[in-house]
Amino acid sequence: MERTENRNHERRKKGGLVTMPFIFANEACEKLAVVGFNANMISYLTGQLHLPLTEAANTLTNFGGTASLTPLLGAFVSDSFAGKFWTISLASIFYQLGFILLTVSAILPQLRPPPCTGEEPCQEANGGQLAILYVSLILSAIGSGGIRPCVVAFGAEQFDESDPKQSTKTWTYFNWYYFVMGAAILVAVTLLIYIQDNVGWGLGLGIPTVAMLISIITFMAGYPLYRHLDPSGSPFTRLVQVGVAAFRKRKMNVADSKLLYQNDELDAPISLGGKLIHTEQMKFLDKAAIVTEEDNVKSPDPWRLNTVHRVEELKSLIRMGPIWASGIILITAYAQQGTFSLQQAKTMNRHLSHSFQIPAGSMSVFTILSMLSTTAFYDRIFIPIARRFTGLDRGISFLHRMGIGFVISTFATLVAGFVEMKRKNAAFSHGLADHSQATIPISVFWLLPQYCLHGVAEAFMSIGHMEFFYDQSPESMRSTAMALFWAVVSVGNYVSTLLVTLIHKFTRRPDGSNWLPDNNLNKGKLEYFYWLITILQLINLVFYLWCAKRYTYKPIQVHSKSDSSSSDEKEEREEVELASKV
After folding, report:
1. Where are the transmembrane segments (predicted)?
2. How sure is the predictor about 456, in pLDDT bands with cuts at 50, 70 and 90?
């Protein structure tokens, strides 16, 4: 026991603010690479590989969905046996290979279809050329699987929650983590997209490839300084064990919750920051902690008997489920910025001068700027003011923060529909409706409201969602919690693909037109698509408000040390953090 305390003491010497430059530098380079790789891909797929618009849009959302689903696998590897540091390192290498392959395909002409001449229809990429694209995307998705669920949780773990001096830094870390990430994205959607559109795709993709290499080197250089927490075994196995044990004892009744099985020594590796205490919800699962004559309490079979802490781990994840699901439609709405909103921008006047025009893919810079400014305002101004009224260190709860983001996002999609109406009216009034490549004499800055509102919504919703998953998940499942955050992005992208496919199919008319045409947005009804998503968001908002009102925060018993009147004497104290203190 003394050896364990000494080991924990050694761990606490590491970590803290000194590790942040390495983690933030890694995140900045990695995001520069990833966004430089993804932000303008719709232009690469349609302009270089000559894919139809809907096929290109679905390829991107499918890739986005897959890249956000693989974190579940990465979380399993990290929490089970590899640990966060090595999972991130190995995943980064896969990402690097994906970047290299795509960059090579952009440099070598034989790996792309020939340029369009204007005399004949453009030749689409053949099977071999598409295979190279898909392999590079798969490698990148595998890389995402290891990086996304681990890097945020790894950074947060550098602060010891049992240390009062560091416990309040965790939620500030989330704000500034997202700020650094946004700053890197800002560079990607301006400089890199300009290079891709005006210099060449070889250099435009080569820079992100080099950035990813720098990211790997920077992250590994901080190894001696990091606070490394040992993996505590497969969390998924523990969850299944609780379910199986509860089912096996389904005919038994819980006479007294105080008699349910507790074993601090058994739970020690998975409850370093505090032990979960019993809650009254989902009482069926409590049956897994009923002690019978057949059970060996000193060395229990986890398929028959589990501690209250392990039962509450499963309860916590189940309680998080509805809040998790409420984020899907928001991601579906947000996904349109990289597809149809970008295509809107391509048809509009993007000139800032006679010789310079904004690349369509760089319009997302306004989303990033609004997200960055909102995040800084929230952290520096809003929180201190809100704290005076609420008494909460974080100003408002993450559930309130998420709710604000939902409202703003719904309004952003509604506005996008009206802007599309104005864009099409300008096309018809100038006789350009039949010319898909013609520039409509209407400023691209009409798209600013939808881009900026989505940025403000992200500052509230996405950061709040991330905080929620990290804070409310069991301590031993922090990587899994971040994987759930990215799983929302995955499902949201797949829902976007499904919506686009269904609308493209069922709105088709005998003349071939539909709401989302492949070649000419002027002939479609994109505004109807935006308003359909708006209606879905309104329904989702009602669902979220209902879930948030009924949500029960996890109660946790925190063990910390406090000084007594004598500096040589220490005493243990226990305090229960209730939901009202979150």
Report:
1. 93-111, 131-155, 176-195, 201-226, 317-336, 356-378, 398-419, 439-460, 481-503, 528-547
2. very high
